[in-house]
Design a protein that fits this description.
This protein has 11 helices and 8 strands. With about 250 residues, the chain is α/β, with parallel strands linked by helices. The structure holds phosphoenolpyruvate. Phosphoenolpyruvate (PEP) binds next to strand 8.
Length: about 250
């Protein structure tokens, strides 16, 4: 049985007090959703510690949106994996398309970040996905394959067992356009095949989340697909009610 996961990527939104309120709202309503759903919230670095406090005693996990590629030292403005782990994070989002696009993150950087994450017992939520041009040119399979081969294939079998993947078509992120459930299933199944080529049967256990304008109205249809194990949620994670309603989308 693969883990079912609904993870909220708050991006650069909320002030600390607002983040705490949001986290409290998720904790308060969590009981209305199947305990089989693993909720994760990923606030900005600045509120990790206060949100960790708000999540105490609940089963809602904490994640960060990024970590540094180096362990420590003279890297002004960076935040080390050890630091976020010390604040109570269990997860870290790596390779988000906004990081790849605006901050030039390459597979070489991401290999180092993955290494830091594992060295600090953080579970990476590794994002892959094509942009609109690549989708229209029919290159989406090749794009995600390369993103997996260049990074995930470098993991050990033990590390791979901890990994979570998020498929996020860039054209669907924050645009209101969602991949259809069939499009999501098609590429999730393909991703699993690419993972199986390297890791064999363990690929069947790897949670693959869908991300890109996922909301309460479309989550159930997408999550019903065989190879979709939950969602990485942006905009809709900023309202506890919507975030929880997405979790209710699990009917399998
Ligand atoms: C994201 O950026 O991870 C994301 C899925 O955003 P949204 O849900 O807003 O499209």
């Amino acid at each position: 049985m693969r883990k079912k996961i609904v993870a909220g990527n708050w991006k650069m939104n909320t002030l600390p007090a607002e983040g705490v309120e949001l986290a409290k709202g998720v904790v308060a309503g969590r009981g209305e959703v199947c305990s089989c759903v693993n909720f994760i919230v990923c606030p900005p670095f600045t509120h990790l510690s206060q949100v960790a406090e708000a999540l105490k005693g609940s089963d809602v996990a904490l994640g960060a949106q990024n970590c540094a590629a180096e362990a420590k030292g003279a890297y002004t403005g960076e935040v080390a994996a050890s630091m976020i782990a010390a604040l109570g994070c269990k997860y870290v989002i790596l390779g988000h398309s906004e990081r790849r696009q605006y901050y030039g993150e390459t597979s070489a950087t991401l290999n180092k970040k993955m290494e830091q994450a594992y060295a600090n017992h953080l579970t990476p939520i590794y994002c892959v996905g094509e942009n609109l041009e690549e989708r229209e040119a029919g290159k989406h399979f090749d794009v995600v394959k390369a993103q997996i081969e260049e990074v995930v294939y470098n993991l050990t079998e033990e590390q791979f067992k901890e990994l979570v993947i998020a498929y996020e078509p860039v054209w669907a992120i924050g645009t209101g356009k969602t991949a259809t459930a069939d499009q999501a299933q098609e590429i999730h199944a393909y991703i699993r095949k690419v993972l199986a080529a390297k890791f064999g049967a363990a690929a069947a256990e790897c949670p693959i989340l869908y991300g890109g304008s996922c909301k309460p109205s479309n989550a159930a249809e997408i999550f019903a697909k065989e190879d979709v194990d939950g969602g990485l949620i942006g905009g809709a994670a900023l309202k506890a009610e919507d975030f929880l309603a997405i979790g209710k989308g699990f009917q399998k």
